[in-house]
Amino acid sequence: MAATNSSHQRSTLLVKNILVSFLIKGWSAIVVFLMVPVTLHCLGEYKNGVWLTISSIMLWIDNMDIGLGNGLRNKLAVYLAHDDTERARSLISSTFAMLTCIMVPAMLILLLIVYFGDMYGFLNVSHGMVSSLDTILIVTVVFVCSTFIFKLIGNFYMGLQLPAVSNLLICLGQTLAFIGTYFVYLSGSHSLIWIALVNTAAPFIVYLLAYPITFFYKYPRLRPSFRLVNMNEAKSVMSMGVKFFVLQISGIVLFMTANILISKLFSPELVTPYQITYRYFSLMLVVFTVICMPFWNATTDAYERGDMIWIRRANKKLNLMTLGIFVGMIVMVLVSNYVYKVWIDKETVIDIRMSIAMATYTFILIVSMRYSYFINGIGKLWLQLIFTASAAIVFIPLAYLIAHLTNDIIWFMAVMCAVNIPGLIVNRIQFDKLLNEKATGIWIK
C-alpha cells in the first residue's frame, strides 16, 4: 500500500509540475521570441552576432560548477526519499560552500584574461563596429559569476521534484531582461554594453531575491549553514558531480560553441540567422524539457524505492511524446519561411536548408536526451560520459575541416548532427538494458 501511495504521489506531483511548467515555459518562449527582433532592431545584425557569441562564452562560466548542481539534485532526491533531512541540509551547505570556492578565483582569472588578452582578435570582431569590447566582457563576467552561486537554488528545487519552480526563476530572469532590453531600445541608445548589462543583471536580481524566500520562508529546515559544511559530503556530491561536469562541458562544446566557431570560421553576421533558426526549433526542445525534466528526479525517487512498474509506464508515455515531437518538427519546417517573415520581417534572410538542418539536429538531441534523462536520474553515467566527451573532442577539428573544404554553414551543421548520433544509439541501448534489468558491466556503471 505504501509503495502504491508513493507511486500515486509521485505521478500527481509530476503532472502538476508539467502543467505549471507548460504555462511558465509558454510565457518564457514568448519572451525569447520577442527578445530576438527587439535585440536585432536595437543592435543590428553585426553587433547582435557579437552579443550572441559573448552569450555563448558566458554559458561556459555558467557550467563551471564541476557538475555540483546536478550532483546536488540527485543526492538531495535520494536523501529526501529516505527522509534524511539533516544530511540533506549538510549536502546543501557543502555544495554552496564549494561553489563559492570555485567561482571567486575563477572570476578573478577571467577578468585578468579579458584585461590583458586580445578579445577583438579572439572573437574576430572589428574595432570599428564594436567599441569597448573589453568593458562589455568585464561587466558580463562580473554579473554572470555573481549569479553562478545563487542559481544553485534552481537545482535545489529540482531535487525536491519541483522543476516548475526552477523554471519560474529562469522565466522571471528572462522577463526582467526583456523589459530592460525594451527600455534600452526605446531610449535610442542601442548600446551593446547596456544590452549586456540588463541581460546579465536580471537573473542575478531574481536569484538574489529567491534565496531568502526559499531558505527563510519556504524551507527553513533545509537552510544552508556554515557549521554544516562537511568535506565528506562535499566529496560525495563531487564524485557524482564530476561526471555531470564532463557531460556538461562536452555538451557545451557540442551545442553552444557553434556561435563562436561560426563567428570565427565564417562571419559574426552568420551567427544571427543560425541563432534565429535555433531559437525557432528549440521551441520543441522547450516542450520536450517541460515534459521530461520532472521525470529526472521522479525516476531517482522511483528507482530508490524499487518502483520499476512506474518507470515502465512513464516510458510508454514518453514514446508517444517523441512521436508527437517528430510530427511537430515536420510541420515547423514546412511553415518556417512564413514564421520568419512575421517574426523578423526582412531583417535577415534564412535559407530553407538551414531550417532543415536545424530541425534534424534538434530532433537528434531530443531523442538522445529522452533516454539520457532516465539514465541521469539513476546516476549511470559512464557510457554517456565516454560518448559525449568523444563527440566533443572530434567536433571542433571536424568543423574546421568541413568549413575550410566547403565554406558552407549547412555542412558545418551536418557535422553537428553526425557527432551526436553515436551517443543517441548508445543511450537507447543502455536505457533498454536498465529498464529490463539486464544491464551488466559498463552498461550499469
Blueprint of the fold:
Elements: H1 2-62, H2 68-81, H3 85-116, H4 119-123, H5 133-150, H6 152-159, H7 163-187, H8 192-218, H9 231-255, H10 258-265, H11 268-304, H12 308-334, H13 336-344, H14 352-377, H15 382-406, H16 409-435
Helix pairs in contact: 1-5, 1-7, 1-10, 1-11, 2-3, 2-6, 2-9, 2-11, 3-5, 3-9, 5-8, 6-7, 7-8, 9-15, 10-11, 11-12, 11-14, 12-14, 14-16, 15-16
Low-confidence stretches: none
- Structural class call reads mainly alpha
Distance between the termini: 32 Å
**Record field, number of beta strands:** 0
User: Which shape, going by the Cα principal axes?
Assistant: globular
Query: Rounded to an integer, what's the Rg over CA atoms?
Result: 22 Å
User: What order do the SSEs take from the amino end to the carboxyl end, as H and E?
Assistant: HHHHHHHHHHHHHHHH
Q: What share of residues are in beta strands?
A: under 5%
Report the biggest beta sheet as strand number plus sense, adding barrel if it closes.
none
Helicity range of the residues? over 70%
The residue-averaged pLDDT reads 81
Number of contiguous helices = 16
Structure description:
The chain has 445 residues and is an all-alpha fold. Helices cover 84% and strands 0% of the residues. It is built from 16 helices and no strands. Helix 6 runs antiparallel to helix 7, helix 7 packs antiparallel against helix 8 and helix 11 runs antiparallel to helix 12. The chain is globular, with a radius of gyration of 22 Å. The two termini are 32 Å apart. The model has no long low-confidence stretch (mean pLDDT 81).
